[in-house]
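Final report, closing paragraph on structural work. Over the funding period we assembled a curated collection of sequence-structure pairs, and we close with a single example.
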Amino acid sequence: MVLRVAMNRRRWLTKSLLCLLGVMMLGGSAFSVEQEARFFVMRDGRKLPLRESTTEYGVIFHDVQSVDASAARLLAKTGAKVRDFSGKRQSRVKLLQVDKTSAATRALIAQDPAVAEVHPTYYYPNAPQCCIGTGTFLARVRPGIDGKQLQTLWDDFGATVVRQVPGVRSTYLLRPSNMDELLCAEKMADDARTVWAQPNFRSPVEKRQIAPSDEYFSYQWHHENTGQGGGTPGADIKTVEAWTIANGQDITIGMFDDACDVNHPDLRQGYTGIGQDASLDANANGADDPSPKQPNDTHGTQVMGLAVGRANSIGGRGVAYQSQFTASRGLIAGTTDEQVALTYVFARQQEVDVHINSWGFVPPIPNPAVIEDQIEAAYTLGRDKGDLDGDDVADPLGMVILFASGNDDIENQVGFELSTLPTVIAVGASHDGDRRASYSNYGNTLNFLAPSGDDFRSGLFTTDNRDTSEIANPGVNIGGLNSDTPGFVFAEIDETGDYTQYFGGTSGACPIAAGVAALVLSVNPLLTANDVRIIMEHTSDPVNPANADYHGITRRSLKYGYGRINAKAAVDAAVQSQTTQRSWPDPPADVTLGTAQIEWRRNTGTEEFMIVESTAPFDFIPEDGVCYDASQLGCNANSVVALPDGVTLSAIGCDQLSCTAGATNLCEDADGGEDHCMGFLLPSGKKYFGLYARSAFGRYSFGVAIDSDGNVTDSGIIVGDPTSGVVGSTPGGGNVTVGAPAVTIRATPVEGESPLSVQFQGNAVSESAIDESRTAWDFDTSDSTLVDSRNRTAVRTYTVEPGRTQTFTATLTMFDVDGNSGSAEVVIRVDGEETEASSGALQNEDVNISIGTVNNPEADITTGISPLSVLLSVDAASLAGELDSVTWDLGDGAKSTSLSVPHTYTNNSGRTQRVAITASITSVTSLGVTTTTSTTRFLTIESGTTSTETSTPSLPGAGVSGGNSTASPCGVVSMITMLGMGGILLSMRLVLRKRRRW
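Its predicted structure, as stored:
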């Protein structure tokens, strides 16, 4: 049937309301509604209630010197007492304590000549300190909103632009004209045209504690090693120094492990409140709870404590102690490969920035493809920060994913250990003597070491499942005894069983490194996952050089990676990256040696290359900021530094296609792609080369070592950079294996809305010549076809049905003249256009709000004088279906679910106010299709006369605070009102019963 609010029904309903509305005007307290709390809408949509103080104001004085004299005057005039705000004595921002806030008191305060501004103060739940309002709020609008649409947005909410926030994309400082800034920000945050909107508070801040007071902090030698427990002083990651700059704020850390005691007193403050039990069906009881549920669920609590243990007076402290965390349970609960893979989908949904994986498959189990795929998807599509470069395409920065290298003292093999994936960071373990832990796995894919325990060395102090909790397992420390190691029982310093001091393995190293990654991102959240890895590699300390055997060109050690991480150096580099964006370039990738020439691919952050050579093996690591030839960027003849003896310059500069200086027999780029190459004379004897990338800021990558026999060490591979779809690498190692062509794909963009036009470019490197006639693309659409094999480029447009999301896998296959083939894939994600059915909300098309008056219910007014009594109803004549429910937001904090709503608006603020009234109707068609239809109307209310007798709360405004309404005395009026209320509710129930499905 077609839902219509027919005229005769409206008139019949109106008659039932006339008596009641008249009573409201006489003794209106029967319909007074207590003003609901204002809400602060977080970026993720969560709403925190805000309580306005009734005993204090925030006051901004013209200068600090005038505060004392003004305080004396205000005390004498109003009885108000000046207090410091956020512990700051020498500040012109103060709190003013009064007996009771009121418009009159606020006016008296504002009249003082030393006072610049007076504002209400607000408290978050359980917060000991208040925030001071400013009368303004901030909003970020979505990409693609043009100037005309912006003005419409401001007009809809009665907001005036104070300024666009300098240097911040699409963000504006606004001043509301018809409601307080909290309400206006709250409503605008729910508008589809904004990313977020929040009050522009003056909020209390504090200096972060430098000397940690956590009870057992002195046992955490990995933060600050003073030689405790027999360790080597300084064998730590310099965390205390790093905390002077960053503590992990605004970063979310995720984890897949056996479980996590999220209510542990040293963890619960950082828990997001949303977790996952991957071993259970999504709809099963407990599927959102990562807490321990079986006897051996002990590992994850210890892991997470090392990353995010809070800064308080108990326990220890995590590296990123201000980061939030979530967790996925199920590591030893029999999870399937699919369930494990979905933990990375969950992490993306929870907007995880850094992901901890202190686990791995038992060797020699190969890596499941479904897990590799989802790790790659998280690396490529995670940390989606929206459109960062103004091209209306999402620019994901990539999730930073860390894996423990393993505890078998073996060399990890690619394909049989997830830590070898180019999309993750592999973390080995060092002990408190700054040496590799005896058990720590190693290999060419190891990135670096982080502190952990070892045999006969100090372990790591961290959180443990609580003995007093109601979870299935109290942890490894039970009653002050740690029994984690079979056959041994160790005494604990914590007899309550909440902590352990014997955690170790690469399981302990991984969360410590993850904490450093969180510190780096908290300084510069615009770094890509690849950037974070580069920074942590370049700032690692090459410990134990005598035994680690760091390569003289690549700087990598087979067993130490790039050394032991250094949090302070990494954070310093992150600060510098705020201006340079990428501190170091990646090494050249896909490096091969053909007939008398070296070929390679450009990688991230590269502006130029440098190649040096010698007739004997040599060690050379170029120094950042140093010039070795006058032709380098930013260099001149006076700044050139000599190369080591016996080492000469082969080529330098190297523009988009080939090196242009110093080389003999310069080669041309064979396929017109983005290869780089340098020809050289065939030597009479063996020749050795070092190849380095250099950024525009004069920083050098780690080198690639090549010799004329074809041996290449640390030839990186291209990994899709989430910001460009072009470049990025994770260094590999060892010699290049001659065989199938190494194929790479570049796709831009890799994600967007339908129809999505994607530009592809492919390339292949092989010792044999590429057979260009056999180049083939499969775009995962109906047109798999040959593409111009010379430049190997193509453009395809992907279309997806409205309301759907679909992924496509484009594949490039290439052959060499010997018949060897190689392939590469790239995943494209396309979102279908949002439709009325998929969006769930239609604006101003199928429903309209009618605003009548008590004397003329059929009127359609837009303005009135306070107190303004109105009758709100909806006209849904064109909406097909049976009515299921009606929801009203009356704009002043009141709600309703009635079809027609009588309401009185009161405004005694002294200025005109504008409220947004929203009605949402849910209907169901005969085919069972549910549609939610919404619309918003604005009503302007001119200020009336302030009255101390009215019981209806005021609309929010300057100088007005909410409070409880006062009930009118019992009597005939209230009895009539109550009878009228009962009659009208019964009438409404009769009208709605036919339209409800329940």
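The longest strand covers residues 47-61. The chain has a mean pLDDT of 78. We thank the funder for supporting this effort.
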